Amino acid sequence: MGLTSLDKIIALQRNPANTRNLCILAHVDHGDQEYLLNLIDSPGHVDFSSEVSTAVRLCDGAIVVVDAVEGVCPQTQAVLRQAWLENIKPVLVINKIDRLIMELKLTSQEAYTHLQKILEQVNAVTGSLFTSKVLEERAEKEKEEEEKEKEKDGDQVYDWSTGLEEADDSQLYFSPDQGNVVFASAIDGWGFSIQQFAQIYSQRMGVRAEVLLKTLWGDFYLNAKAKKIMKGAQAKGKKQLFVQLVLDNIWSLYDAVVTRRDKEKVEKVVTSLGVKVMARDSRHSDPKVLLSAICSQWLPVSQAVLSMVCEKLPSPLDMAAEKVEKLMSVGARRFDLLPEQTQELKKAFLQCSSGEDAPAIVFVSKMFAVDTKALPQNRQRPLTQDEIAQRRELARQRHADRMTADQTATENKMESLTLKDPKPEEEEEQKETFIAFARVYSGLVKKGQRVFVLGPKYDPAQGLSMLPEGCSASDCVPEVPYLSCCSMESLYLLMGRELEELEQVPAGNVLGIRGLEECVLKSATLSTSPACPPFTPLNFEATPIVRVAIEPKHPSEMPKLVRGMRLLNQADPCAEVLIQETGEHVLVTAGEVHLQRCLDDLRDRFAKIEISASKPIIPFRETVVRPPKVDMVNEDLGKQQKVAIIHQVKEEVTQGRSSDTLHVDPSGLVTVTIPNRMATVSVRAIPLPEEVTHLLERSTELIRSLEQVNMSLREGKTVDVSLRTMEAIAGLKAQLENLLQGRKWRNAVERIWAFGPRRYGPNFLLNSVEGYQRLSVWHCLGRGDKAGEAGAAVIRDFDNSIVSGFQLATLSGPMCEEPLMGVCFSVERWDVQSSAVPQHQDSLEENSISHEALANSRVEGSTKTSSEVEGTVAGQSQARRRPEAASADCYRPVSGQLIAAMKEACRRAFQAQPQRLMAAMYTCEIMATAEVLGRVYGVLGKREGRVLHEEMKEGTDMFIIKAVLPVAESFGFADEIRKRTSGLASPQLVFSHWEVISSDPHWVPTTEEEYLHFGEKADSANQALKYMNAVRRRKGLYVEEKIVEHAEKQRTLSKNK
């Protein structure tokens, strides 16, 4: 294939019907018309799955590459899920089929069975994604039907399979007869789809190509006598058509060329295939050279893959309406509730028009840094003959002047050179230029054009109301929240490492944009219309969890480090840069490989200084558990011993604090009184069931949306929330009610006061105060408790102080200042003296405001629900009190002291229960042969890993081991596995969950059996204590440890006394 000129590419860009935007998704081990293909490659390692997300967003289709030997790996499942979430169509390439012949020594029949299994594995992944989607849609429809048919009598039987039977999944699965599968060996240069062989054999056998296309893959065989294609090859012991007509030919070619090196047979094959082989290839000592020469002409892999891409992958004109609505509906917003002008933009997306009147809509998926010298305007171009002659003449003249010049002139020249030296140093700092990697969805983008940059929180309804009608980005725009303007200085065509400058880019194309580094951090939506909403954020599979603190080796270079980390943060979609309270600069990455890449980039590209990185900062969580039933040697604890242990903990808790402000009840209830004696709060810590903790952790985004809705209602604002979001919130509440069963959790879900930390974490505050009726967190659903009574109105003034204290307590626990997880804090008593609050005035004000709000809601037609009216009342009362609050006594000492008291009560209540650390865990999948299995188990055991299961992969001698491994023990794990197994095993680590470490970090032997087993010192390794002390030491907290471990008299060789 020859090189295509830039003019030809620009011409092809104007035809979106013949444009294909696609990406290659793989795991780490593996016509007549003219088409423009924008091919985006993405790394296969699991640490860089964020790069896959940025590529997938800009594409309409994807090539999923699967290894023929290893089959579906964890990363394959991840990329298929990402493609599904972004509504892009995938096609499949099964690569490395040569390994089935050369390494596994499979026969053609065995290889066919093996390839069938790989297809089943891939289709099982896509099938499960499709099934879950259909069942969700079916459940939504069923809810609507139930509401309509409530009046009808009789029991209804619900059949979950009805939705699946009706749904069309004909185009969903990968099947060679559909033309969306290519079998290939990229290293040997060949690849084919069934269509190619159907065309070849239809001419030879006199069978229609359509018939062969349907029968070449499947249980069909050729009946030589009847000269018919018949079904039932496996039952009758016959060779399938695919084996007989396709695989046997490839196997025989490898046998002749590589295995036997039979020159006569090779010549026959070359003649029958009609290919030309050069003499040097046939005489080459490596048979693979001859094989590649034959295969690349017979079955070129490029032709097979590109034909499949052009025929099966959609063009930008084929974008689904569902995908457009999904892109435009951010968070809790419903598409049908967006402004009319915004909804009209859907047509612009679907038409993919490049007309002058079409609004320009561009999405930037990532920013990447390039060397300034690599930009087209700075790149050296080849000189013409005239320019060469002119430069030669100038050089001669300069040489002559230098020879005739005297010594003083030379010195002056040197001085002038030294004066000019600082300039290159200044320019050196600007060596990296950021280019935005983007796609045009609508309109024609021009060089120098000004556009609106829409932040993720930008509201098009608010923007349209604040901006004058017909306003454009080039006008003087008033300040609008989360909206800014910028100009696109240069547009580039991305040609691998090369950049080609363009004047304009039409819709449906991928491009690079310079000049956005000041306006765009990582990703953004650009548009000429303020009615355009920001696109939904990218779906990242990898969770940034590995942290390191970074500092320069020479303190004077700190400004360079800060600048370098800012550039790295902008260039990497997954990396995060933080400055902690201690002043440390922290880099957060997805894994060990990602961390190393970021540190190398920082040293070599962005900061260009020597840096020192700390040991990885491992996150932990703190939790409480139910009192243990057995001791450390698995002996049953008697009632007296168990109580003794709990009392021992309680005694330790109460030490060091005066009893007049702190009291710890034997049952674990902690009561704290604030210093000025005006308020008292009693709190109990209760461990949450494991299922509830997992549910809250999974529902982080939903709880955040719930908090945003509640905040808007408290402020008296009206919020348009999508029906799906409200149903999801109601579903979360129902799940919590189902999981929190039993006497102690009675009505607990309705009494949830707040979630924490940061108002959406996996802990919650429970309102168990008698007589305090406050709005539940679920009041946006319209089923919350009614507004408080007059007595409760006094306490409501300090409601926020209690919540703030809870948020602070859950953000940093007492064990090692790490966030809490899976803890419920129940407030059982809360007394405030009446002298602390101007009660009468506030309650009168609230009554008058509530009457006003109710009257207004009646005038407006009573369209608001009761919960919305209550939210409006609360918002108005808060707004009216705010000017007076500054002078009121209650907002000076009492509020702050109550926050501190609540935090202290939560921490003490936490310490009154059995405490445990929670470690972050990786799921580890290892493929290894039987010979090295024992060594793999040895490395896992040494690093506190736990094997979940192992299974042998059918048709191979490989074992798949699935294990869990603490993140704290994972550093150097992959290298150690490779060293111990001589490279025969390679692990894939993906963050999975948080797990409670069973050992108690504060444990001391108390029973006779424990003294006998562990000794009086009990100095055997306590994993939880080791982790806790390491975190405390890093944070500069007090660590209780012995300076001398074993104080014995020194013995020398000369004297043994």
Automatic annotation (TrEMBL):
It comes from the Eukaryota. Keywords: GTP-binding, Hydrolase, Nucleotide-binding, Ribosome biogenesis. Residues 138-157, 397-427, 838-884 are annotated as: Disordered. GO terms for biological process: cytosolic ribosome assembly. GO terms for molecular function: GTP binding; GTPase activity; ribosome binding. Residues 1-317 form the Tr-type G domain. The keyword Hydrolase applies. The keyword Cytoplasm does not apply. GO terms for cellular component: cytosol; ribonucleoprotein complex. Residues 859-878 have a biased composition (Polar residues). SMART domains: EFG_C (SM00838). InterPro entries: EFG_II (IPR041095), EFG_III/V (IPR035647), EFG_V-like (IPR000640), EFL1 (IPR056752), P-loop_NTPase (IPR027417), Ribosomal_Su5_D2-typ_SF (IPR020568), Ribsml_uS5_D2-typ_fold_subgr (IPR014721), T_Tr_GTP-bd_dom (IPR000795). Residues 412-423 have a biased composition (Basic and acidic residues). PANTHER family: ELONGATION FACTOR-LIKE GTPASE 1, TRANSLATION ELONGATION FACTOR-RELATED. This is Elongation factor-like 1. It comes from Dicentrarchus labrax.
